[in-house]
Amino acid sequence: MISVVIPLLNESVLVGRLLKEVSKNLRVTGEAFEMVCVDDGSTDDTVEKLLQFKKENPELKVVSLSRNFGLQPALTAGLDYAKGDFVVIMDGDFQDPPELIPQLFAKMKETNADVVSAVRSERNEKYSKRFYINLFHKVFKNVSEGNQLEQTGNFGILSRKAVNAILKFSEHNRYYPGIRNFIGFKHEFIVYDRPDRLEGDAKMGTRKLFSLAADAIYSFSKWPIKLCLYLGLLGVVVFLAAIVYTLVSKFTGLAPFGWSSTFLAISFFGSVQLTFLGLIGEYIYRIYKEVQKRPIYLVKEIYE
Fold first, then answer.
1. Which of 52, 64, 243, 261 could join 301 in a cystine, given CB atoms 3.0 to 4.6 angstroms apart?
2. How much is the pTM?
3. Cα(108)–Cα(106) distance, rounded to whole angstroms?
4. Beta bridge partners of 115
5. What own/partner pairs with CB < 8 Å and gap ≥ 24 does 161-165 have?
6. 176: closest CA among 91, 94, 103?
7. pLDDT category, 201, cuts 50, 70, 90?
């Protein structure tokens, strides 16, 4: 059986058409299937639209969360409740084309892979959003541990073995594409052009994108701490150079600069220390969130 996990937040405008397209393309595979829609605390009539669709499509399962927990917890809930031997994960904004589902499944069967990711060759979105996302993927690929695929999001298909491996992760601050690459197993990909959103408003604004990027880098890279080390070493070098300059100036009769040199030195070291404290604070906050061991999500109702 194939399960399709779709997290949704205020998508009543397009959810009916999306599910029709997903259902149609799942039937092309010739396999039994289910659609697991996770409502992430929608404030519109998304749940009502889902239940209306479910009346004629019993293969739909609706998991309604008690409030808005965010995209990554909603994906986790979907994986928890998906029962298929193969699990497709896709966004609920119609930017992950449903017609690629048979292609993902065929690629997995053909290559005997456990993970098949959809890699974006082109992004037909606003320039500013494309710029930030492309910059993140470049930085993340170069600073993260492991072999990270560029231009991949949530869209892809997993074997049951891969799903079970991902469900063993218990961290609160999670980045699904990073976890998907971290588990290993045989990983293949297909390439597609990602369309722009046709209806509704984007749920991942700039602030949320930056927050997700920070979670990804802090979770899968040691470069933030390394950067602190390198800046600290640079500060030591500058400090030693200042000592040498002061001694040479004294013995040669050249007086060192007055308040300006002192002000610059204090500003430099003060800014470095504040940067370190802010970075350490980010790690402490994340450690604190993990130590609390709060549930990643809470379910209000399940319709199946």
1. 64
2. 0.66
3. 5
4. 158, 187
5. 161/114, 161/185, 162/114, 162/115, 163/79, 163/82, 163/87
6. 91
7. low
